[in-house]
Amino acid sequence: xxxxxxxxxxxxxxxxxxxxxxxxxxxxxxxxxxxxxxxxxxxxxxxxxxxxxxxxxxxxxxxxxxxxxxxxxxxxxxxxxxxxxxxxxxxxxxxxxxxxxxxxxxxxxxxxxxxxxxxxxxxxxxxxxxxxxxxxxxxxxxxxxxxxxxxxxxxxxxxxxxxxxxxxxxxxxxxxxxxxxxxxxxxxxxxxxxxxxxxxxxxxxxxxxxxxxxxxxxxxxxxxxxxxxxxxxxxxxxxxxxxxxxxxxxxxxxxxxxxxxxxxxxxxxxxxxxxxxxxxxxxxxxxxxxxxxxxxxxxxxxxxxxxxxxxxxxxxxxxxxxxxxxxxxxxxxxxxxxxxxxxxxxxxxxxxxxxxxxxxxxxxxxxxxxxxxxxxxxxxxxxxxxxxxxxxxxxxxxxxxxxxxxxxxxxxxxxxxxxxxxxxxxxxxxxxxxxxxxxxxxxxxxxxxxxxxxxxxxxxxxxxx
Length: 465
Ligand SMILES: [Zn+2]
Prior knowledge:
The protein contains twelve helices and 18 strands. It is α/β, with parallel strands linked by helices and about 475 residues long. About 55% of the residues are buried. The chain has a single domain (about 60-390), classed as Metal-dependent hydrolases (TIM Barrel), CATH 3.20.20. Helix 4 packs across helix 7. The chain is about 25% helix and about 20% strand. Residues about 200-210 have low confidence and may be disordered. Bound molecules: zinc ion. The site of zinc ion has 5 residues, from loops. Zinc ion binds near residues 63, 65, 95, 328 and 330.
């Protein structure tokens, strides 16, 4: 067997069970051995890291809305995957909606695969969608390589991706169980929203059709928060636990925000229900009480809730009721945020943080006493497991893809929208000082990002096998 063609060594390598000084030997795409720090064969390229830098598995982000084809002006694969590389993300999974066509049919998936080719700086996989009437498309989509399926229990914000009802799920879930496919769920139901008495359309991400009356101030964050009560999430989680019990389908709750539903999730997991959950950096960083009037860059659905809710989400990460943290990178052109009027009810919902997930989460995790190994579980191995990639990504292990990030947990930087490689730069993180600087990113043994520079042509693979 030929020797390694690249060795990276670091004083802190994040291994599955420990953090230790090691040299990581790579041949081609994969890690071929993990050796002591000083074990460097002659004649191969060696990359050294600073003594306080960490070598960690490349991040896996399973919740990214890229929007190409059809809404590429919101975000496309070229810009999204550059942002990913700059953020230490080596695998992203694209959501099935906001592109036109959506990934709810074989034809739609093929259109997306055609649009993506040759553009990706990192490896990219795809979610399919469950919408009313497409149960017959699920098996062929799975066969073509989607990693699983997403559905909405409430208006998705775009008309070409309608939400499902319980009746639709009764039809789709036996098929998903038969396929062994995971169903990921936007878990808010409309009922509790219509009971709030605030006259807004219960769309999930921003299309508000009704006007507001004189008693409601649409530029106040608390007005928006009241339109998306915790009960909408709680009832949705309850429904999905019940249906998972009935049909045996693996369920994953996306962007979970309501702390009230955590005991229910905890109990369901303990009882053996096949359910997992994710939350997002914004729910773990911001608090409703601190969001200024008119600051629509903070709008997302479900909403950022109160400070105490945030701390409960952190506790749930600690006890593994919540399994992972993904970005829900959900961009739109800045005009759609209606920053001039500051109308929370009319603005598009969605926060883009693909590039910033590592430092945001590290900054907040550090304050609460969590470790870099917790971070690696939430950002790398757990998301890889969700999409069936835990035999090749999410860990630094022999035989695994040499997807790696070198970052410095001690260094700080200030977020500036201009330094983001996302297509659009409006961000609620602007001006925040974060801990953790991504220095270099490696995709399958090739350096793709180094201190602000992108290396080489796009090398990302489409993960459809
Ligand atoms: Zn999303």
